[in-house]
Design goal:
Blueprint (H helix, E strand, L loop, with lengths): L8 E5 L5 H10 L2 H7 L6 H10 L6 E7 L2 E10 L7 E8 L8 H15 L4 E7 L3 H9 L3 E5 L2 E7 L5 H27 L2
Parallel strand pairs: 4-5
Antiparallel strand pairs: 1-2, 2-3, 3-4, 5-7, 6-7
Helix pairs in contact: 1-3, 4-6
Length: 190
Amino acid sequence: MKEILPEGGVVRKLWIGETAKYRDHLLRLDAQSRRNRFSGGVSDEFIHNYVDLTPGLDAVVHGFFVGDTMRGAAELRPLGARFPREAEAAFSVEKDWQSHGVGSVLLRRTLLAARNRGFRLLHMACLADNQRMQQLARKFDAELSFDFETVIGEVESSRPTPLSLMREVMSDSHGFATAMLDLQSRILRP
Ligand SMILES: CC(C)(COP(=O)(O)OP(=O)(O)OC[C@H]1O[C@@H](n2cnc3c(N)ncnc32)[C@H](O)[C@@H]1OP(=O)(O)O)[C@@H](O)C(=O)NCCC(=O)NCCS
């Protein structure tokens, strides 16, 4: 399926050593988006600690990049050994890039990554008034059940196939090539 993104933007996995880009993206979220992303208001210090923990949790982070700057992110965190087939997914897109299809591409890539890692159930926690995330989840047939302040969206992900594994490898190589071109153009810049 063709992925439509704002001009000049790409979605690729975050590399080891790029966590500062993720942290800076989360810190740039406006107050409402930050509240929605973390299901409540959180401090800058919380975000620093949160991002520091991410690499140790086997999380898969996809980023939406415009040039070298991360403007959107999708994080897939395994729930751990007690729930080997379950993971949590969380999404964030900076305000100027919202409603341009970025969240849809990030969710599609995250579902593919989840499927290829054998996760059968994805938990998405979002506040009950977060219409946009609920609409987005519905686009991918999420089954939503309400729980007072919070909506828990659960998306069944299908089994991995050689084709789904190949699709993830192909998205990664495209992301790698774009990142290398970007790096090259910055090195060669006068
Ligand atoms: C929720 C979020 C990730 C969605 O990303 P996005 O890039 O804005 O989403 P998309 O542009 O792909 O739109 C997805 C769907 O949301 C709905 N949508 C888009 N803009 C909307 C708006 N202003 N109001 C209500 N629904 C809207 C549409 O159904 C759209 O699908 P369509 O374009 O096929 O009709 C993003 O808005 C965001 O980061 N919000 C703040 C943080 C957050 O809420 N995170 C979720 C908690 S895990």
